[in-house]
Design goal:
The complex is a heterodimer of chains A (241) and B (115). Chain A is mostly helical. Chain A contains 13 helices and no strands. The chains are: A mainly alpha (241), B mainly alpha (115).
């Protein structure tokens, strides 16, 4: 087995993704988060700490909201955890792309810490262009530079909040979900991806009104499985007998 | 109101960091067992796609934080504008995001609320 060596040049190339559309959109979102922190009862250092250790914007917002409402710790932990379940299928779907033979396991776990939806989107768009043995260091470079930069952006957003018109800050916050949604269209490669996208879009709101605690989780599992099965039946039918 | 006696940093670690990181680590644990061309991989990709679409819908229908101050119709129309512009301009992203931003801003600034 080939001895594994961490490819620092691929890591640096990943870091150069700091000049990317994903980075710009993420920065705008974290500016919004900084402004949101100023609006809450937390200070700027606590805001930075949140970004640093949670590193998942929806969970961070939920945490701050519930903290202010005086919710008990367990309630907050469960709510935050529900918003983070998406990382399980995201990591499972990404790992075979980066898991080159001989990769030390701890590097995979370390990488997972730095993966956010934005990094996942970027991976879906660019990973196929990166040679397989270089993918892990490349993504690690993307993840760490994004993470480090957003610590700073949180601070900038906190201090900028006093200057931006409130409506502009609010509109900027909506950029991130829009970006996630459009990126699903942009990275869709087969009919199944579009089916899954449509299924999640329709089932999400329906399930929200029935079981609001588990809406997007169930919409993901039910909608995704339905899309997979429909696509699979069509695939099998098209195969020569 | 936040209880002034609690250590916010410790709390953030316990109720923010750990509940999030566990899913990342479980993803690596399960992801190691499958390969790129396996059926499980294709299924998981479909689940991840549907889940994120539904997560966006949740933010549109029931947002938390600053977005909660906007009207539902503004958010729905802003997202719809992004999708339409993306369909027309693909594969370029930027116009669709500008369309979303502008739609939300104008609808909120003018106070037009359809639903």
């Amino acid at each position: 087995m080939a001895k594994f060596q961490f490819n620092w040049s691929a890591f640096a190339k990943g870091m150069s993704q700091v000049v990317s559309f994903e980075f710009l959109v993420l920065s705008v979102s974290f500016l919004g988060f900084g402004a949101f922190i100023r609006d809450s009862q937390l200070d700027v250092f606590q805001g930075m700490f949140l970004t640093g250790v949670v590193w998942a914007l929806p969970g961070q917002v939920v945490l701050v909201n519930l903290l202010q409402e005086g919710a008990v710790g367990l309630t907050i932990a469960v709510a935050v955890s529900l918003t983070a379940i998406r990382f399980l299928p995201m990591m499972v779907s990404m790992l075979p792309l980066v898991n080159h033979p001989g990769t030390p396991r701890w590097q995979l776990y370390l990488l997972s810490y730095f993966v956010s939806i934005s990094v996942w989107v970027l991976a879906n768009r660019h990973l196929h262009k990166v040679e397989k043995s270089q993918r892990l260091p490349w993504l690690m470079g993307v993840g760490t530079i994004f993470w480090a930069a957003m610590l700073g952006v949180t601070v900038v957003g906190y201090h900028l909040a006093g200057f931006l018109p409130p409506l502009l800050s609010i509109s900027l916050v909506f950029l991130t979900p829009t970006f996630f949604y459009i990126s699903l269209f942009a990275t869709a490669r087969m009919a199944m991806d579009f089916l899954a996208l449509a299924a999640g879009t329709i089932l999400g709101p329906v399930l929200y009104f029935i079981i609001p605690q588990f809406d997007f989780l169930l919409a993901g599992v039910i909608g995704g499985t339905a899309a997979y099965l429909i696509a699979r039946v069509r695939r099998k039918r098209n195969l020569p007998q | 109101m936040i209880d002034p006696d609690i250590n916010i940093y410790l709390l953030i670690f316990l109720v923010g960091c750990l509940p999030t990181a566990i899913w990342r680590f479980l993803g690596v644990y399960f992801g190691e067992k499958i390969t790129e061309d396996s059926e499980v991989f294709i299924w998981v990709r479909a689940v991840a796609t549907a889940l994120i679409a539904a997560l966006v819908m949740r933010i549109v229908i029931a947002p938390t934080g600053l977005l909660a101050q906007t009207a539902l119709s503004s958010r729905v129309l802003a997202l719809a504008a992004a999708v339409v512009i993306f369909a027309l301009m693909r594969p370029r992203f930027s116009y669709s995001l500008i369309a979303s931003l502008a739609t939300l801003y104008v609808l909120e600034a003018t106070g037009i609320r359809l639903f």
